[in-house]
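Q: Please design a sequence for this.
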């Protein structure tokens, strides 16, 4: 029993590390985000589909309601990735990942609208701390400033990601994680098909990063992450995943020589502290 628990802990930590590579890979692939996401989803769908075929999973969708939920969740997931990659391109790994990581608190604010959960006033205080953290991430309230645009895109991405996770958990939890990921990847690929028409193929270096992004970050990392909800509650996973921006910033420092500003570090610390407080608070509840 203990060995199985340790295996589950190891898997969710591996998932967080793999997902954290999205920041440095997103910055390294010098393509429009929607093009990068199309290739990412195409390869990820192939890798995940191959795994599902090997495991002999049933690909059938049980109802029209499930098909609709898959379509909407895929649309939200695609929007999340595109806005996140725009945040990375406009700013840097630190700002992009930290602004995205407002999603656990945004999730806590949105959950009462979708589940029978009573809204807690303490969440308003925590939301205020997140806003303060975002204020420190933003160098100036100037919409011509790329860092400001990056923060805005990151927060939009966080809202879309929170909605996707809530919808997936509420309506699709009876499916295997890999099957849900496969269909979401296919939906994004189909929806983004028009953007790939008449576009040149990526170069050799971009191919390498795209395949790593599709296999390591997406097919393995995100599937393991979705699967972790079977073994841990949302609070535990949120606490563990709060390491993701830290890993991402370290990768950015190591591979891109991006050293975050002191205000970015302070704003990020406020956001991550709020995430951990909310995770422990909901866990006790």
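A: Design:
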């Amino acid at each position: 029993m203990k060995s199985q628990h340790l295996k589950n802990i190891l898997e969710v930590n591996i998932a967080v590390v793999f997902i954290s590579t999205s920041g440095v890979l997103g910055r390294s692939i010098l393509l429009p985000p929607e093009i990068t996401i199309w290739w990412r989803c195409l390869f990820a769908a192939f890798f995940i589909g191959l795994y599902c075929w090997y495991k002999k999973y049933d690909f059938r969708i049980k109802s029209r309601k499930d098909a609709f939920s898959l379509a909407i969740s895929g649309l939200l997931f695609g929007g999340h990735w595109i806005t996140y990659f725009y945040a990375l391109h406009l700013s840097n790994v630190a700002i992009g990942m930290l602004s995205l990581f407002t999603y656990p608190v945004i999730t806590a604010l949105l959950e009462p609208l979708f589940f029978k959960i009573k809204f807690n006033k303490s969440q308003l205080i925590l939301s205020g701390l997140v806003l303060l953290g975002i204020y420190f991430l933003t160098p100036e309230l100037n919409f011509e400033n790329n860092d400001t645009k990056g923060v805005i895109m990151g927060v939009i991405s966080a809202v879309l990601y929170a909605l996707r996770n809530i919808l997936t958990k509420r309506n699709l939890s009876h499916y295997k994680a890999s099957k849900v990921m496969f269909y979401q990847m296919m939906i994004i690929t189909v929806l983004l098909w028009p953007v790939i028409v008449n576009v040149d193929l990526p170069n050799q270096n971009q191919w390498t990063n795209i395949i790593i992004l599709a296999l390591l970050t997406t097919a393995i990392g995100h599937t393991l992450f979705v699967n972790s909800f079977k073994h841990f509650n949302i609070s535990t996973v949120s606490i563990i995943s709060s390491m993701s921006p830290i890993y991402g910033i370290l990768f950015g420092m190591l591979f891109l020589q991006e050293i975050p500003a002191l205000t970015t570090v302070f704003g990020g610390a406020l956001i991550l502290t709020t995430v951990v407080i909310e995770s422990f608070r909901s866990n006790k509840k």
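Q: Thanks. Anything notable?
A: The chain is about 80% helix and 0% strand. The first helix runs from residue 2 to 20.
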